[in-house]
Amino acid sequence: xxxxxxxxxxxxxxxxxxxxERAALARHYTLGPDDLDFLAAxxxxxxxxxxxxxxxxxRHPGFGLRHDETPPxxxxxxxxDQLGLSEALFGAYGSxxxxxxxxxWDVAAHLGVRGFEAGDVAFALDRATQAAWPTNExxxxxxxxxxxxxxxxxILPASARIERIGLAGRARARKRALDAVAGVVTANQVxxxxxxxxxxxxxxxxxxxWLRDIADSPSARNLSGxxxxxxxxxxxxxxxxxxxxxxxxxxRQLVREGAVAPAFLLSDYSVRRRRATLVxxxxxxxxxxxxAAVQMFDKQVGELFAKARAAQKRHNVASARDVGxxxxxxxxxxxxxxxxxxxxxxxxxxVDQAVGWARLQEARPQVEALAASAxxxxxxxxxxxxxxxxxxxxxxxxxxxxxxxxxRDGALAAVKLLQxxxxxxxxxxxxxxxxxFSRGWKALVGEGENIDRRLYETATFAxxxxxxxxxxxxxxxxxxxxxxxxxxLPRAEVPAVATSLGLxxxxxxxxxxxxRLLDWRLRRFAGALRRDAVEDVEIRGGKLRVAPLSxxxxxxxxxxxxxxxxxxxxxxxxxxxxxxxxxxxxTDRFTELRSGKTHPNPEALLAAVLxxxxxxxxxxxxxxxxxxxxxxxxxxxxWYLSDETYAAALACIVDAQAAxxxxxxxxxxxxxxxxxxxxxxxxxxxxxxxxxxxGADPGQKIYTHVSDQYAPFHSQLISATTAEAPHVLDxxxxxxxGLDIHEHYTDTGGATDHVFALSHLLGYRFVxxxxxxxxxxxxxxxxxxxxxxxxxxxxxxxxxxxIHECWDEAVRLTASLKAKTVPPSVMLKKLSAYKRKNxxxxxxxxxxxxxxxxxxxxxxESKSLRQRCLAGLNKSESRHALAAAVFTQRQGxxxxxxxxxxxxxxxxxxxxxxxxxxxxxxxxxxxVEHLRTSDNPAPNHLLAHVAPLGWAHISxxxxxxxxxxSAGADDFLPLRLNDRLSSVA
Length: 985
Fold this sequence. Notes:
By secondary structure, the protein is of the alpha/beta class. Helices cover about 55% and strands about 5% of the residues.
């Protein structure tokens, strides 16, 4: 039987190995006065050094000096130096094994430790079980066992035995978790759970498969299907408290297992495991279905108003001819009146003769109609589709229990009124109905006995949509539509995080500091402008003018780039990925969902990643590959590829690339840029939206963060119509790599005052390239007259009162983002969803105006800052070309039906491009070494323009051969030295 391992080789080395770093040697192996006295009593220098080794190794890692073991040279040198001996003496130590053993027991008595006994097994197993309660990962479990035995004063048994204890503890923890979940299910619920796996005799589809089929294209039929599924899950009647019986991470583990396991596999599980997995899956499905239903309701209501606005626009275009005709008639009338006044004749008679009074009378209804339609509120057009609203509205209201923070929330009262009207069948809206609408909508809807039911219901649904988005109204059982405060850190935990960020304790402290700084900076800039001392910047004719920059590449750099490109080896993408995996170990981060073990077939794992990364798909990848089957790829995708494993693998590659010497030529890893790249989808709905900026095809954007060393360290899928600014901070806070980003660049789409505010509070320097910078006015604390030269740039004063009022909430939000309780994009979207500005939203905007003003002065005063931003954005844009080249299959379209599948494609694409960047960096470095040893100049200032983003030497398509010779640490593909360097002009 194959051995089951708890740890990887890397984990074993970290836990059981002898450290050799200087700091670790000092921490673990420094001998104390008692040790030196104990050693002084030993006869012979060799024995003293050997016994010192026993002392060291019994302390850490805790095994002692094992038979025939030769400790690391650095350890022996460190010990020998403390004793004033030669490390070579260890070779003469303990030629008799009995002598070593006797010394070992003497040292154990000196240290107060004892051997591992049978009674310690149960103790170690309990500790392993406790450690495994929240996780399946082997290292935390094994570490808990080791630390517990050390605390008990027990010499560690063999590492294999520790792993066996850890495996047993993990199995016990898993069994207890399954018992806790499955044990509280009633007999009726057991029957319902078992029925989930029984196929329908007419369709052949199991209920669990039907429940998982969550439609995303907005339509009344699809929304009805979501609500039917939600009702099915709820009628089983599972108590939400079941999830609290086990650790949150263990419960999420069950959820993930249930999400990927097909019905036939669940049927093969043990009864306890099957039922516990199904319970977890149903809780997850209830949340997913709730979110999907609310999101589809949001889109359905949004479509009604979007269509109303589009119809209004078409009407305006169609009536352009009438408008022209009526305007000419109006112009003729004015001419007639002007003539009548100048000549002193009767105005009415002059108009009648020149235009014709009858024509004016005929035109009057047309003028009134055009005037009425020109500013028609979209509410009227949306209400015209009232029957469409009725197809899904009542069922949606009945499916959820809506909640609000205030006891007398007008929108919630209007929702409850509609629910009552629908249940009773009454048509008329009562005179005292709540009207939680804007003044304009109230006038349209009517009041008292004159309330229009269609307009009232349409306005209520639109208001509910906005309030659900903002979190003012929420629903039970949802993850994405919870109460706003539910996303934030508990108040008691905020001070510690705020202190770690170095945030001012009070608004007074923040405002006093920024007011002094901004006033000084403005006066200094004004003086520099007077002296014409600001490079490439001036205010002329009341308009700010900044000379554009150009990204000129020296001709020598372009020639060096061509030479390096000619030297790079030709390579298949399969060989490139395999080599990158061997050198970085990123495939070890793709662990199995349940056991946490690495994949037994790395070729199948890489093929599954590449199938998504190139958009080829699993079936076509299997057909095009040698050595992997579709079944292997499907299993790999289901059980090894997840958001977490993709993030861990990407971080592994990014960190490995950052460690290569050449990367430092491009940057030190402290700056980054981000930008969105559009990919057509061929589908509308959640899986694609039309943005006129990118043409008439629906699609999605992949928003990617790229380091100054060209590594794409974070990516996420966003709608083509979604603003990019809310996602800027997502990548900075939630990437898994070791990069320490301090300064970040975006283009105009990523720049809002809210991002300025949160970037500053979180400790990032936000540097956007703002296209309309000259039109964005600066906020000041002082009156604009204080800065005469800058008056064209000065806007309204900073509202300090709102910052004082909401400072604590702004700090709480910032701390929550830092603690990763919620992604920044979620909160920024909720704040922007308020129709009337939320107080916290307003405060963040004012803080952002302060920080934007300071940034603008930085931007105008520093040409080098503008150049750094341009260089950073160019790196992002250049990376887009590589991504497009990789993602060429199926015409580069995201053809997946679900957003989840598209997200996996985006993650795989980013991983493949990161692997290419790593491999190119490695081999460009080798090419540079060759050039320099061949007396060909390759100075760093020119290498800074040589990007690791080329792909001409990489075979990205064709047959995929996975079983190519693997590369060792010193086994590189040969450079193409037969190409003459001088041939490159």
